[in-house]
Design brief:
heterodimer, A: about 375 residues, mainly alpha, Amino acid/polyamine transporter I, two-stranded antiparallel ribbon, about 0% strand, globular, B: about 400 residues, alpha/beta, GMP Synthetase, Chain A, domain 3, nine-stranded mixed beta sheet, four-stranded mixed beta sheet, 14 helices, about 35% helix, about 30% strand
Chain lengths: ~375, ~400
């Protein structure tokens, strides 16, 4: 094992939670409402339920190999060469995920807050913090997540309570007016972002000091995250209306702009930006950490820390170079990402699980003989 | 050594952050826009911005106004972005529109279609969505912005707070935020309506600082009629009675007054809260609209003699008369929107969409023609809860 850090089950739960809401909390309503209109909230609840099945699959893999990262499992099950190839595919996914997240941070900041600041500057500064966290190791990331998530909950509570007076129940009607098809479309896009991305947690799960706790924490984290996302989507529809939500690039930020209690509690949209920055920081750190750890395991490098800084530079370049503009980014997320995520986040672990169960049975049969 | 090097690196990196922000805006470098007026002049957009003059606003508080508390800048261009940027050629400060209170559209532009200006205000990051939208009645938006106001030093703040206040206390008025307008522009089952603002008095006198030094201003701004639109084009102005009915039906009335006749005089009933519901039902091939309205009210003023407020029959009678009165206003508004303007400002289409989505998808293309013929049933329920601090009026026992 390369990393010598250990995290508790509770820290693991918080990381899963932060990972689930990070990035999605800001952009999820638009994609969902575009597909499912008024019924976006049904689509999201549906997705959360299905995602529990998905997470159960991840947990199953973890419980068979509780002390191995995904990279090690893969090499063990699929043999040296196929295994290494499969690992490379998975690592590419983790790398692209990190790059997309970084780009998202840059795009949001330059669109909503600092239009004159070059996007590179934002990427470099943010990546600096991520590199620092990665160098300090998983233990520090885990412990800080406990402190930060408390603040996150406070901010979210303020956000939800402050928006309550603005809701219009009529915006939710008609329920199921368009039938089931739009809901399924919404599900298809929403499960890829964030739920299928959760596969990177198989890189971190073996570092939890308590196996049963990790399994439970994984599930609980996903469920709480799902509930929070459901609230955000629901409030977006209830306050902004369907058409308006679908038109916004950052609907929950637009939602926070609507907060106005009396004449003094207003213009607090930065609360939303805060929630989002905190959660996406953990999401980016985890996927980046998974990538560098996996890469060092793949090439048998002794300490992942030595490759962290160079990789981060690659990532900064990737984030700027891959998308020429924000429309390209949205098209990528909308058309390509779901299929890509399904391959890596669903098909890949399914094959692993199948192989593992088959080998186990063979060994069992052989043992009986 | 290595540790020292990394800590040095982090110190260097933090210098980058501590030095400040790329996008800083110093308060004394920006011109805070309080109102934005847009007109159309020979195929170009004429943008009028009302900028707060901070020095003057401060002196007002210490007593005595010497110069106008706001300035207006104008520029003309084909697009709004261009016009806003052109302002910098003669304004010493950069235009900053996050504190915008009012967006006023000239009547000519509204008649031609105001769709072209909407995108700019919802796309731009500087524009928040909490300002009010209004159409200048019988005049240009630029003239509205030039009128100075009393009590509130900044005219745009005067407009927005008077609008907010009268929404609460006067039936025909409501605030329209840009988001509501945009939503109604997009939804197929409802057409937008916008509140109008007009100049009363002499517009030219309103520009001068003397206008605010008198007790009765030479020119002042007043909200009144409601403009109804078909898509983004102004169709016509509702009368006050119709506006009243519209707002009752939409549930936008909070506190208002219903005058009920008694003999030749009137009894005034103030509404405390209202609650309305618009529904569209399907009956065979016919659509039936219903407006259900509940009003909680109180007796505010009695003018006629010999009216025994201590009797429950009197209260029942007043309730019934108030119901009739409101119902008539609502019916007038519905009649007008169906027959005169043929525009579904009430959102019966949206109501149908909510209750019968599948039928709605069949008729939404020509909802316009269906709307003309739907029968609307109006059901008003007034409950008088209180009668004020005295029971019978002194007039009741006044000597004959």
């Amino acid at each position: 094992m390369l990393d010598n850090g250990k995290i508790t089950a509770n820290q693991y739960k918080m990381l899963v939670l932060l990972f689930t809401i990070g990035s999605s909390i800001l952009v999820a309503p638009t994609a969902l409402v575009n597909d499912a209109k008024q019924d976006a909230w049904i689509a999201i609840i549906f997705t959360v339920i299905i995602s529990i099945l998905l997470v159960l699959m991840y947990i199953k893999i973890y419980s068979i190999f509780p002390n191995m990262t995904l990279v090690e499992i893969c090499e063990l099950l699929l043999g040296k060469w196929i295994g290494k190839f499969a690992v490379a595919l998975f690592l590419m996914y983790a790398f692209i995920l990190s790059g997309e997240l970084l780009r998202e941070i840059g795009d949001f900041t330059t669109t909503q807050m600092m239009p004159d600041t070059p996007i590179d500057a934002i990427h470099i500064v943010f990546m600096g913090v991520v590199v620092m966290a990665t160098l300090l190791g998983l233990e520090v990331i885990g412990r800080s997540s406990e402190i930060i998530s408390l603040w996150l909950f406070i901010l979210l509570a303020i956000y939800f309570i402050a928006i309550l007076p603005q809701i219009k129940i009529g915006n939710l009607q008609p329920i199921l007016g368009e039938g089931m098809k739009p809901i399924l479309f919404g599900f298809y896009h929403f499960i890829s972002l964030p739920y299928l991305e959760l596969i990177v947690f198989l890189m971190i799960a073996p570092f939890v000091n308590h196996q049963k706790g990790a399994e439970k924490g994984f599930l609980v984290g996903v469920i709480i995250g799902g509930i929070l996302l459901t609230f955000v989507v629901m409030f977006s529809i209830l306050v902004l209306g369907v058409e308006n939500t679908a038109r916004q690039i950052y609907p929950s930020y637009a939602l926070a702009r609507k907060i106005e209690i009396g004449k003094f509690f207003q213009r607090v949209e930065v609360i939303m930006a805060g929630i989002w920055f905190l959660s996406i920081f953990y999401k980016l750190t985890i996927s980046f950490y998974a990538f560098v750890l996996g890469l060092s395991q793949l090439f048998k490098i002794k300490d992942y820390r030595s490759i962290t800084l160079p990789i981060s530079m690659m990532l900064i370049v990737y984030a700027i170079a891959f998308h020429p503009n924000i429309v390209h980014f949205f098209e990528f997320v909308h058309n390509i990402w779901p299929l890509y995520s399904l391959t890596i986040g669903f098909l890949f672990p399914l094959i692993l699980l199948g192989t593992a169960l088959m080998k186990k049975r063979q060994r069992h049969v052989r043992g009986n003989r | 050594m290595n540790k020292r090097l990394t800590s040095l690196l982090f110190i260097l990196a933090s210098i980058m952050l501590l030095a400040g922000c790329w996008d800083r805006r110093e308060l004394n470098d920006i011109a805070i826009v309080s109102a934005l007026g847009i007109d159309k002049v020979d195929d170009e957009l004429l943008v009028t911005i009302q900028v707060i003059n901070p020095g003057q606003v401060a002196t007002v508080k210490q007593g005595g106004i010497t110069k106008a508390p706001v300035r207006t800048f104008q520029s003309k261009a084909r697009t709004l972005s261009e016009a806003m940027r052109k302002v910098t050629t003669f304004s010493p400060r950069a235009v900053y529109s996050s504190h915008l209170r009012m967006l006023i559209i000239g009547e000519d532009l509204a008649k031609e279609g105001m769709g072209e200006i909407i995108d700019y205000v919802v796309r731009g990051k500087e524009f928040r969505t909490d300002f009010y939208l209004s159409i200048a009645k019988n005049t240009r938006a630029e003239n509205i912005l030039k009128v100075l106001s009393q009590l509130e030093t900044i005219p745009a703040h005067k407009l927005s707070s008077s609008l907010k206040l009268s929404e609460k206390s006067w039936g025909p008025i409501e605030t329209i935020e840009i988001n509501q307008f945009v939503n109604e522009l997009v939804y197929k089952g409802i057409e937008p309506h916008v509140i109008g603002v007009e100049i009363i008095g002499n517009p030219e006198a309103g520009e001068k600082i003397e206008n605010v030094e008198k007790t009765k201003a030479d020119a002042y701004l007043k909200f009144g009629s409601v403009a109804i639109m078909r898509k983004d084009k102004l169709v016509d102005w509702l009368t006050e009675k119709e506006s009243n009915g519209l707002h009752y039906a939409l549930g936008k009335v909070q506190r208002a007054v219903i005058n009920v006749p008694c003999k030749e005089k009137k009894v005034a009933i103030e509404t405390i809260r209202t609650n309305s519901k618009i529904q569209t039902k399907v009956d065979g091939h016919q659509f039936k609209g219903t407006v259900q309205l509940h009003i909680d009210g109180a007796v505010a003023e009695v003018q006629c003699e010999r009216m025994d407020l201590e009797k429950i029959e009197t209260i029942n009678l007043l309730q019934k008369k108030a119901e009739e009165k409101v119902k008539k206003d609502i019916l007038t508004a519905i009649q007008a929107s169906q027959k005169k303007y043929e525009v579904d400002i009430f959102g019966f289409g949206e109501a149908l969409h909510r209750s019968h989505p599948s039928i709605w998808h069949k008729v939404k293309k020509d909802w316009h023609s269906h709307f003309k013929d739907i029968q609307v049933h109006v059901d008003v329920d007034v409950k008088l809860r209180r009668i004020g601090t005295i029971n019978n009026s002194p007039l009741h026992e006044m000597k004959p």
